[in-house]
Amino acid sequence: MAMKGRFPIRRTLQYLNQGDIIFKNSVKVMTVNYNTAGELSEGARKFVFFNIPQIQYKNPWVQIMLFKNMTPSPFLRFYLDNGEQVLVDVEEKTNKEIAEHVKKILGKSKETLEKEEREKKKLSHPANFGHKKYHLRECMCEIEGQVPCPGFVPLPKEMRGKYKAAMKNEA
Amino acid sequence: MSVPRGAVHAKWIVGRVIGTKMQKTAKVRVTRLVLDPYLLKFFNKRKTYFAHDPLQQCVVGDIVLLKALPERRSKHVKHELAEIVFKVGNVIDPITGKPCAGTRFLENLADSENLTEADTTYLSEKLQELKVCSTDK
């Protein structure tokens, strides 16, 4: 019951999440020109085969276009928000080298990523209760040591509003 | 609240021209890679955009860079032509700057030194055919 295809590991969420190239906010379009034959484009082909799914998974709003056999030399081209274009020559480079180079020139650095994570954490306060989507806990009854949920274990008589009202009426 | 280029979500797009029958407008097809949720594979998803092309310099098949307009120009036209990245039939390799087609450079073809024997025989045959045709007329 193996997965189908040549390198089906590329189609696993774990592999896609391992991509570490997260583009800066100014990168809008990425274009890869490569050739299907020839040793010069070998690195580019491997890059397209292995690394492009990871990049697109981590950067869903960047448009990635692939062009085959248009020019003799393989290259990458990035279109930034301010109109700038970055041309990266990829001839005779392995796919790892290409990925590292791209990460160095246009990827978010570790510090920026950590900063963004911290900012995100600041928005949500862990001590608040609410819907599972936005908060950690929904009700006090979930916590050990607190009064258990009356839905599962009935409350003792003294805590029930019915009993308290009856006692009040008596007195 | 300033929205410098905010009419559209896509500020810069690269696409391929599929139609130029409209006056000063180019129909551009843009493909994006979209993840199929079950197969976890990326497939191209197409979308057509209309772009304003005032000089009507686009031909069907060009690869084109579009820029979002600050306001919508008409009901469907929200982008304008920023530059033609690759002109069809006239692709210029950006690294060397030379014209090329497929995996070959076109520059050196005209030099007679670089012609192989097969090329010379082919060309001479073609020339003979042309001579024969012209004498017939």
Automatic annotation (TrEMBL), chain A:
Locations listed in the record: Mitochondrion
Record bears the keyword Cell membrane: no
Annotated protein name in UniProt: Small ribosomal subunit protein mS25
Entry keywords, A to Z: Mitochondrion, Ribonucleoprotein, Ribosomal protein
Domain Ribosomal protein/NADH dehydrogenase: start-end pairs: 36-109
Species of provenance: Bucco capensis (collared puffbird)
GO MF annotations in UniProt: structural constituent of ribosome
SMART domains: L51_S25_CI-B8 (SM00916)
Coiled coil segments of this chain: none
Lineage summary: Eukaryota, Metazoa, Chordata, Craniata, Vertebrata
The keyword RNA-binding appears for this protein: no
Membership in a protein family: Belongs to the mitochondrion-specific ribosomal protein mS25 family.
GO cellular component, one term: mitochondrial inner membrane
Automatic annotation (TrEMBL), chain B:
SUPFAM superfamilies (UniProt xref): Nucleic acid-binding proteins
The protein's name in its UniProt record: Small ribosomal subunit protein uS17m
Domain of life: Eukaryota
Record bears the keyword Chloroplast: no
Compartments in which it is found: Mitochondrion
A single GO cellular-component term on record: mitochondrial inner membrane
The keyword rRNA-binding appears for this protein: yes
Keywords, alphabetical: Mitochondrion, Ribonucleoprotein, Ribosomal protein, RNA-binding, rRNA-binding
The organism of origin for this protein: Bucco capensis (collared puffbird)
Cross-referenced InterPro entries: NA-bd_OB-fold (IPR012340), Ribosomal_uS17 (IPR000266), Ribosomal_uS17m_metazoa (IPR039193)
One of the GO biological process terms: mitochondrial translation
GO molecular function per UniProt: rRNA binding; structural constituent of ribosome
